[in-house]
Sequence to fold (174 residues):
Amino acid sequence: MKKKVGIFYGPTGGKTENVAQRLQQAFGQDNADLIPIKSSKASDLDKYENLILGCSTIGKETWDADRTKEDWDLFRPEIEKINYAGKTFALFGLGDSVTYAANFVDAMGVIANIMLAKGAKIVGQVPTSQYNFTDSEAVIDNQFIGLPIDEDFEPDLTDQRIASWAEELKRLFA
Ligand SMILES: Cc1cc2nc3c(=O)[nH]c(=O)nc-3n(C[C@H](O)[C@H](O)[C@H](O)COP(=O)(O)O)c2cc1C
Fold:
């Protein structure tokens, strides 16, 4: 990996932001920028060829909910406007594999499916065998499309998950 990584994430102020910061540290501060998705447009991603997108899942219904829009809700129309040519993406998703075992990190799958339909190159898939859950929209072709992180019930595993995923991405990114 020679080129800088753009880490776009949301929401801010919670566990997703915390994991985004730890990922930035794994790449080294000089090698990765940290940018809230809520203040971004599709064109802001054009500065980067290597991109990591982070989200949390607060219920599938939130996508369509009639409430103040924020973070990924705001960016959602932009996902389809991204110029995917020449870019490599990796996704991470915060979730809770115990309370929401049947919808574990669903939002990561929702975002990924829109991107894949547009021809996005997504790397950094993770085997489902490393998690206990019952169902997830983020399982695509029998593996997680990105890195699930469960800070609610498996916080002890987060450091190792971040470290090994970041090492893999360093090899896969341009
Ligand atoms: C109201 C609510 C709904 C949630 N729904 C889901 C869910 O459907 N799937 C899941 O994996 N996690 C779900 N979670 C757990 C969060 O994704 C998890 O706590 C995450 O770490 C929160 O990240 P944040 O602090 O960046 O928002 C939910 C949490 C809340 C409070």
In short: The pocket of flavin mononucleotide is lined by residues 11, 14-16, 56-59, 94-96, 100, 103-106, 151-152 (CB under 6 Å).
